[in-house]
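TL;DR need structure tokens for one chain.
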Amino acid sequence: MPIFVADASGVTWDLGIGGTLTWTGVAGFILEAGGTRIATDPFASRPGLVAVLARKPRSDSALVATTFGRLDAIFVNHAHFDHALDVPAILASTPAAVAHGSGTLVELCRRLGCGQRQLRQLRDGERVTVGPFTVEAVGSRHGIVPLLGRVDRLQIGPRGTPLTPIRWPRGDVLAYRIGIGGRTFHIQGSAGIDDHALARQPPADVLIACLAARQGTPGYLDRLAERLRPRFIVACHHDDFFVPLSAPPRPVARLDWAQFLADAKRLRERYGTELVRLPRNVAAGF
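>> reply
TL;DR here they are.
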């Protein structure tokens, strides 16, 4: 089974809501319903490896505007560059939008020129209503990435902003439970699990699961599915984010797609969970 698809013809769900879900790459999604548009981890600029390691962080404002358009709210899993680099550019182009995330994310965006009115800190268990959407922050953890621990900053420094994208701080990690029309999407944007936060979650219709760095979390998909009993599972953060959006997607390092398919098959046998593959930047109705 191919990793990436070009269109939404294979999307089989019918959740009866009348909205759309668009995977924008990495852990990014746009959910739209009733004229309200919210996004998770909107990241389009994709600086190459050299730029990530050695150049000043910079968003491609034109590409960001084209990819995301008008947004009412943004929800950020954590503050690493592949989740949060483009948030300030989006807030500058859509003044009505509010970005939600950890205290680290809020402080970083403030230092980068975002107004406090457009920033809101969320903690585990807090909820926000945006149009027809109800969004709950769910405490989570980052996946274990080999070698990243040597350079990863967990919190922002006392002053200034990171000199290169690789130095963007992680901060607290949040998954998001998004409810609309009696249906629920659980977006696990990083492949770690906070068992205490997960334990209070009721079942969800759709589990969107980060695949990058999941090998460091024992029983990752099984633990999520045992609690959430999802009707559908969608992969995310499985494309190489050093490749520009103008190029076809290719798998992130250590993806192990064959193992994911085996895991998805096991979830189908246990819970009836169906695998849905979303194309990138194509809206799929739900």
